[in-house]
Design brief:
Elements: E1 10-16, E2 19-25, E3 35-37, H1 39-46, H2 54-65, H3 71-83, H4 90-104, E4 108-109, H5 122-132, E5 143-148, H6 153-164, E6 174-180, E7 189-191, E8 195-197, E9 202-203, H7 207-215, H8 232-235, H9 238-245, E10 250-256, H10 260-263, H11 272-288, E11 292-297, E12 302-304, H12 315-333, H13 337-346, H14 356-365, E13 370-380, E14 384-394
Parallel strand pairs: 4-8, 5-11, 6-10, 6-11
Antiparallel strand pairs: 1-2, 2-3, 5-14, 7-10, 8-9, 12-14, 13-14
């Protein structure tokens, strides 16, 4: 506590009672409720990097903002942060150990968005999904994969509708789901061996694939349950699968981490770790022998004030971003993972392509398929924008 260090959290600008404030959000969900602080308090937070003493923080705050702040005020603020497990210290570490142990002992990953992002009541949720898929697209194409959003249903409904309908008549019941992990991961893959629940039912994990992964010297290193605990990118796919397919399915959920070092040129592709993962995973699927579908829960560009951009979000900006999205979607349509990465490298990922990693792995794993982009949307509230697309992979 003498050299406080803040954990990784999101700081989002909001307006509260006419004042500009900052919403502190814990992407790992360890802090159950978000905190709202002033801009001055946010600056105070930025000084808590583990290298400054309380006196150093006091001096830097006063030097920069020109306002007097007492040590007692900083200590009180730190106690509030500590009570919400926002400081990286022994209190947080011990709480994290307890949470990890509790979650690790649970056989089923519970739906964390039920009652928040969608209805927790089964009948109410079924009525919503029935309305959502009233006009469903049916196809006899041999589907091998789906590119889907992971944005909330309200904003992504149109793309979800125009994409998931293609699964209605498929007889494949093994679904591998690649999703973006929105907080730091230790490794580039995080495989879950748990069953997953939704308000509709529990979806079992593939026992055979999990057994094979545990026996594989490469893949077993990537079993890590914790990142799945509060991540939504896979969860949002599950009720849609259950409703549209209406048959017993089994899943293998895989969260994917950042590929920033490859985009920044700090690492080059091909990379031995990635090649080992892909090679071993393809061999394992072949040994499993049953037909499967690979889904990626992956949004595209994130631009505007909410994501830290200072440029105005106008029709020109949105049009330019859409053109760049079309380049990326062309690479996806061509199943060209290398060019897909290079396209994002060329713009230095300035638009924060949130689905970069799951899409890359999907393209590598489905390189013997064809692809068609069936839907695209660029959502905006006038200040920020998120884009996403729907695609089908088939043979």
């Amino acid at each position: 506590m003498d050299y406080p260090r803040i954990r990784y959290i999101e700081a989002l600008p909001i307006r509260q009672e006419g004042r500009e404030m900052i919403l502190l959000r814990d992407t790992e969900g360890i802090m159950e409720n978000s905190l709202v602080v002033s801009k001055d308090a946010l600056f105070l937070l930025s000084l808590m990097d583990g290298t400054r003493s309380l006196r150093d923080i006091q001096a830097e705050y006063m030097r920069t903002l020109g306002n007097l702040i007492y040590i007692e005020h900083i200590q009180n603020f730190m106690e509030t942060l500590d009570a919400h497990y926002l400081l990286y210290n022994d209190n947080f570490k011990n709480h994290l150990i307890q949470l990890r142990e509790e979650y690790g002992n649970e056989p089923v990953r519970k739906a964390c968005l039920a009652g928040k992002g969608y209805a927790s009541n089964k009948m109410e949720f079924l009525a919503f999904l029935d309305e959502m898929f009233k006009k469903i697209v049916e196809s006899s194409v041999n589907i091998t994969g789906i590119l889907a959003p992971h944005i909330d249903y309200a904003r992504g409904m149109e793309v979800y509708q125009e994409t998931y309908g293609y699964l209605k008549n498929t007889d494949k019941t093994l679904i591998v789901i690649l999703g973006t992990c929105h907080h730091p991961m230790e490794k580039i893959w995080s495989i879950s061996a748990k069953d997953f629940s939704t308000p509709l039912d529990v979806i079992p994990g593939s026992r055979d694939l999990i057994r094979r992964i545990k026996e594989n010297t490469i893949l077993r290193q990537y079993i890590d349950e914790w990142p799945h605990r509060n991540e939504h990118s896979i969860e949002l796919q599950l009720p849609l699968l259950q409703f549209v397919m209406q048959k017993d399915i089994e899943i293998l959920p895989i969260l994917t981490g950042s590929m920033h070092e490859y985009i920044a040129g700090e690492k080059d592709l091909p990379d031995q770790e990635i090649e080992d993962i892909i090679g071993n995973f393809k061999d394992m699927l072949a040994q499993h022998g049953k037909p499967y579908i690979i889904i990626s829960g992956a949004d595209l560009a994130h631009i505007g004030a909410q994501f830290g951009d200072t440029f105005p979000l106008n029709s020109f900006t949105l049009s330019e971003s859409k053109s760049k999205d079309e380049e990326i979607l062309e690479d996806i349509k061509n199943i060209d993972a290398d060019t897909f990465i290079k396209t994002i490298q060329n713009e230095k990922d300035r638009r924060r392509i949130c689905g970069l990693t799951p899409i890359y792995f999907q393209l590598r794993l489905l390189n013997d398929s064809l692809c068609r982009i069936v839907s695209y949307k660029q959502w905006t509230d006038g200040q920020s924008s998120v884009s996403f697309a729907g695609g089908i992979f088939y043979r």
